[in-house]
Amino acid sequence: MNLQRTMALLKLELKKLIRDPTFLFTLIVLPVILTLAFGLAMSGIPTTSNPEISIFETMVPGIYGFMCVYIVMTVAMAFTDYRSEGILDRVNTTPTTSVEFMGSHIISNVLISLLQIVIITVLAVPLGFSIVFPGFFLTFAFVGLLALSSVGFGLIAATFAKSSGAAVGVSMAFFLPQMIFGTWIPMSDATEV
């Protein structure tokens, strides 16, 4: 594995993501919108299970997880586009190995996820989210691991999807369980009326 080629591919992938308005919106603007919307709407409402904690404080880790799982869709869409445009075939004709190519995608998506966590946290703190520092570093590491697995799930979704539209549909298999099983609202609060 040539580190120079991997870094060049990483730089190319990050440039591609920054130049694409769809990815820029979903990877940078969406976390800002979600954090501000939930923060302004729910920062003062206490949870029923622990009145000392606001609902917003329980939702911020859910936003972390949601944005990481959103990587599944972006990776699936990117690789189905690469396949349909013939980019994967063209990469095979270059001296770049598949490890370097995949490594650049993995690193870029993990970096984007960690950037999202920083953006969400910077916006959430003034809205009432409190950071516990030893736990926050563990959260940061966990999000990196979740982003890494999300890239893998995105690649799995890309193998089943024949187009980027189908990739969105296949990646919904990873979104829906999050919505149903307590990403936004803790399960104990979801059953309260």
UniProtKB/TrEMBL annotation:
Keywords per UniProt: Membrane, Transmembrane, Transmembrane helix
TM region positions: 21-42, 62-80, 110-129, 135-158, 165-185
Occurrences of domain ABC-2 type transporter transmembrane (ranges): 6-183
Record flagged with keyword Transmembrane: yes
Compartments where found: Membrane
One cellular component term from this protein's GO annotations in UniProt: membrane
Organism: marine sediment metagenome
Protein name according to UniProt: ABC-2 type transporter transmembrane domain-containing protein
Membrane topology field: Multi-pass membrane protein
A Gene Ontology molecular function term of the record: ABC-type transporter activity
Lineage: unclassified sequences, metagenomes, ecological metagenomes
